[in-house]
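Late entry, protoporphyrin IX containing FE complex.
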Amino acid sequence: MSEPFSARLRAATWTDHKAAEQTTFLDDLTRGRLTVAAHAALTAQYHLIYEVLEEAARSWQGDPIAGVFHHEGLTRLPALAADLEFLLGADWRDALSPVPAAAAYVARLREAAFTDPGAYVAHHYNRYLGDLSGGQYLARALARAYDLTLGGDGLRFYAFDLGDLDAFKNGYRAALDAAPWDEAAQESVVAEVKLAYQLNTDVLADLGRAHPNPFPPEVIAQIMRHMNDDHADDSLLICRAALPEPTRPRTSSAAMSGMDAAGIEFRAVVDGVDTPVRVPFAARLTERAQVRVEVTRLYREACQILGVPAR
Ligand code: HEM
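Prediction complete; structure with ligand written out below:
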């Protein structure tokens, strides 16, 4: 028996999926390296996209082939509006300005998804099966990173009232397998899904340019070099103040070993033993210029704790 179309579609587009999944923006966003504003910006782009996708879904209602894919429980626009209102306040519609790739995405939907049933299904599959799959992982990561409640305010987009999501996805794949598409029609669905992945990857790349990680590895390396070349004594004071009192005099040196938006890390030598020390910042930092101010504050605070005069 030949491979079902859903399996062939998945296999033929999985490298495109990898490219979408592995964008720097999604990586930074899910690891909490960005601010909640970046999550809001992605949500705003989704609003622009789903507005058209769900208009297309309505236009195919009753169609014997394309009409079977949409389900009321998939509709995302009200959830997106609620998330944006929570994240941005009453003026959230002011944020509905497309990045260049979202404008291209919406233009492609308008061009193909209202007239070509295969193209519509391709975009529908790409977004909704993604939301029901990796989207669920994203929601958990976003909840953790930006202090949101899974399924609650700011994350309603990711919460589906569809019962068992795996069972739903299996039903969706069965509908793909049952569509009466010949080889050529299937090929054009595959090509449109590849394009849909590309458009998503491009939107994420545009968002990455608008919301860069303020502390990429090369910036951390520069800060580390500066701290270790010019401020080794200050690092030692910061570590001594952070360590329990009895170990303070037994701490002989410290070198910065890393940082992120929430804190700075050192390797201190305590009783001759290499010891990791993490010192949290007073607040999450969102730009590089704040590092100097915050580390100076930590130094002054350490001097006070240790009873040492500050410079
Ligand atoms: C952090 C990012 C992502 C992760 C971790 C992720 C993860 C996954 C996983 C594990 C699956 C397989 C689920 C299953 O078979 O039940 C999946 C499926 C899928 N994902 Fe993603 N994904 C991510 C981003 C994306 C993006 C950006 C898109 C594009 C809009 C996307 C579209 C899809 C689609 C269409 C499927 C269904 C494939 C199929 O079974 O036919 N994903 N994803």
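The mean pLDDT is 97. Will revisit in the morning.
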